[in-house]
Design brief:
Length: 229
């Protein structure tokens, strides 16, 4: 299978249809899920989708090592390539890795200004990101001002930003309390939940749209590619 068909099975294509064009440049999206459900896999999948489409990704890992994240990308890519029978998988993986940057921080030390500094360095090295993913952000500690700073950076870059938030349980009944007061900064919020032999992706917030029934999809738990929509 060619890479364009792999992209067609990405849940991002459904997001673009179901979320009024998807997240959109200059916006922040959040994924809420319980421990072990697949938050990191989702972010890596979003990043890999962007890379396969020719974009540049900055992956921010909080309380993780660069080596761990790099290995995880390899694991997710191998599952994706195997499940889709991707042609020229090795050369494709080598190519997209040149457009991916990984930066690791202690969660307690991370800030919008540090992210801006990283973006400046990568941009000067001809790796200006079109997508930023932040794995392990603690909304309760980050605060509204930091989120606003990250959104301003996304708008300046004309890039999208996705981050993950851990919920207390596998099934997300509603927005965690940490999301209170974030309406101005976060445009899209998704819930990732296990259901039988798949995981489901559900919209909790879709920009200013009140009808959230259009997005409810099943994903392969290994590759997080579409099973059904």
């Amino acid at each position: 299978m060619y890479r364009k068909f792999v992209n067609a099975r990405s849940p991002m294509r459904l997001l673009e249809k179901g979320l009024h064009g998807g997240l959109g440049i200059g916006n922040i999206g959040a994924l809420v899920a319980g421990h072990g459900v697949g938050k990191s896999s989702f972010l890596v999948g979003v990043a890999t989708d962007e890379l396969l489409r020719g974009g540049t990704v900055l992956h921010v890992a909080l309380d993780q090592t660069v080596t761990h994240v790099r290995d995880f990308y390899g694991t997710v890519f191998d599952a994706l390539a195997s499940s889709t029978h991707l042609e020229n998988a090795l050369s494709t993986q080598t190519e997209i890795e040149t457009h991916r940057r990984i930066r690791a921080y202690k969660a307690a030390d991370f800030s919008a200004s540090k992210l801006a500094d990283a973006v400046k360095i990568e941009s000067e090295a001809d790796a200006r990101p079109t997508l930023i993913v932040i794995d392990g952000l603690d909304l309760a500690k980050v605060g509204d001002d930091e989120l606003a700073g990250i959104r301003a950076l996304a708008q300046e870059l004309a890039a999208e930003v996705w981050f993950t938030v851990q919920s207390d349980s596998e099934h997300v009944d509603g927005l965690p309390a940490s999301f209170q007061g974030t309406d101005e900064s976060i445009s899209v919020i998704l819930a990732l939940e296990p259901q039988g032999d798949e995981v489901t992706l559900r919209a909790l917030k879709d920009h200013e749209n009140d009808d959230l029934q259009n997005l409810h999809v099943g994903l392969d738990p290994r590759s997080l590619l579409l099973i059904r929509s």
